[in-house]
Predict the structure.
Amino acid sequence: MMEEIFDILDENGEVSGETAPRSFVHKNGLYHRTAHIWLIKDGMVLLQRRSPDKDSFPGRLDISSAGHISAGEEPLISAVRELSEELGILASPSELRLIGKISRHYMKRFRGEIFDDRELAFVYLFTGEYELSQIKIQRSEISEVGLYPIEKCLRLAGDDDEPLNAREIELLRDIIASGYDYIQK
């Protein structure tokens, strides 16, 4: 399988015109784009448990669905693709609401290698209907999914050894507290 190629961003978060392979991007901390898609049901947040084979944060609870945006790809198209690949949810672009863009950076060592992740996350909320029992997880990426209270998500996001981002969880907390008012069509 060919390695993914990412657009490299400039210091303003704009596509620079340069591209690089995934491994080079993460080894050298190059700024790139990701799509994060969150699912909420009955005031609970859907989290995935990352596969134990992942190159970063193996076995940890993480974003409902997420992935890198390939070179030349639009963030919304990437988000729709990730939902389909990881959770088996065939969403239309109109069922995703952009709720923020968050720049994040972390550097950790996994499996003896430096993983320097500097990304601009396009954060979406899935507004379509779904049942937990209908989710079909991509086993190479995810070992399980479950619904968690926002308080647990906030605690996890406060731990530097966890992949969840506190600013994203705070966005979700505000959406849940508002009764979803500001994301309605």
